[in-house]
Design a protein that fits this description.
alpha/beta, five-stranded parallel β-sheet, 8 helices, 11 strands, 34% helix, globular
Length: 261
Amino acid sequence: MIEGRKTAWPAMSIAAAYDLLTARGARFEVEEVVVRGVPTKVWKNAPATLRDVFLGGRLFGPRTYIVYENDRATFDAFGRAVLTLAAELRRQGVAKGDRVALIMRNLPEWPVAFFAAALVGGIVVPMNAWWTAPELEFALIDSGASAAIVDGERFERLAQSLDACPALRRVYVTRRTGGFADRRARPLEDVVGPVNAWASLPETPLPDVPLGPEDDATIFYSSGTTGRPKGALGTHRNMATNIMTAGCLYARSFLRRGEAP
């Protein structure tokens, strides 16, 4: 017995917990589908794409979603900012399969940029905010990014490298004051405004872009400990699988403690 508990630990085995959680009709039911010619076990009830994840979040409309220092954004305000930026990316010619680099520290604008790029069918390329200018330049060129969404500090780090990235057509910069010498750069706030004003953005239609579970959605770079970092493609199914896996692990912990998930 564990002090303070009425049931012994563990209340059930890991195998028993998984049998319960993945049973037919359960939230975490598993099925087998063919993914690119390979029979693969998948979560039956997982969101099909990141668009479905985004739409699921919008159901929580008035609830607070993001808290950062003095910034606050509800799910609804966040959704408005995402759709506004998605419309801007489409106006700038970002199409399905185009790479959109995401280079910033943990800011409220990060998930806005991520989902906006994903909704237009872009392949999001999140880069390590600790990378040096040569490392960022390498990944921008290697990924073929046509657009980048960065914070002010990363922009200053990249400023001398932009001319080496001919495929890069547009750079959106958040949380930076002052002008831009590079004609490709503009403030992200010109598009979506500051975080606390996202709620006042107009409702913008969802991009009419066909998306499927096996469409490429991300490129994450390896650490490059033995050479240059290598970009690894991930699909919409990959990202949705991570969400379901985390939920299943949490639920398993509750069952093992003898509690209801």
